[in-house]
Structures are given as C-alpha cells and as structure tokens.
Amino acid sequence: MTIKAKLLCAVAASGFAAVIATAPAQALTSQECSAKYQAAKSGGTLNGMKWNDFRKAQCGADATPMAAPAAQAAPPPPVAAAKPKAAPTTTAAAPPAAPVITGNAVFPMAVDPKFAGQTPHLQRMRTCAAQWDINKTNNATGGMKWNQKGGGGYYSVCNKRLKGET
Question: What is the pTM of this model?
Fold first, then answer.
C-alpha cells in the first residue's frame, strides 16, 4: 500500500470514529425516565431538582449521566440530626397574642344603605371599609390593623359586630 492510501485510510478511520463519538445517544422513554427519577428521588440524589429539570438533564439525547454509586448509597445521616431542630419550631407555633386595642376604634352599628343592592358579605365588608377609612383619617383605629393573622383585625371585629356576633 502506498503512503497516500495509508493516509487516506487513517483519515477515513479517524473521521468515522469522530462521527460515532459525537452521535447523540438514544433518549430514554418516559417510563424509563420516570423510573430513573424515582430511583434518584429515593436515593436522595436529586439535589432539589424538579421533574422537568431532571428529565431535560438526565433523559434527553444529550443527557449527562448521574453518579450511580451516590444513587444507591444509604440515606445520609444529617436526616437524623435534623429531627432535634424540629422541636423548637413546634413551640414557636403558639397562637399569636390578641392585638392591643386602645379603645378608640369606631365600628359601624349597621350596614350602610348605599351597599343594600350587594350580597350580605360585600355589604358588611364595604361598610367596614368605609368606616376604616374614616377612622384612619381621624387616627381612631384603636391600634388595630385592617386584617391580622389569627383574627382580631379591624375587619374581623367589624364583620362580627355587623353579623350580630359581637
């Protein structure tokens, strides 16, 4: 064989190898990808990755493989260390204290007639809102906020009064 023929064969072989190496891999089916996701999820190797991100990164034709040993490793020990931290959060979940009312808040005695054509809920809400605006202008909110977590805000108290629940 001549040197020209040898070079031609070498170039052809290296070109073929390059094409094979850069050819896209076969993408996983939806079922295969789901099984891979569940395995990674139970193995704790998702690192906060959601399904769509996992699918794009691990199941497409250009997916990068996940580390197999980490997926089959036992659950990490920090899970046991996290349990003692849960105790302080349960004590912090106590109901909030009732808001301090200075006593100068003014509440409407009845629903405003200009809201008569609306549903009872909207009648009460808009009546309370109109009085709230007046109270804010006159600095007579009694230290209350319009709406407070756990109830007790101005709207909650006003709504109960208009319903007759006092």
Answer: 0.39
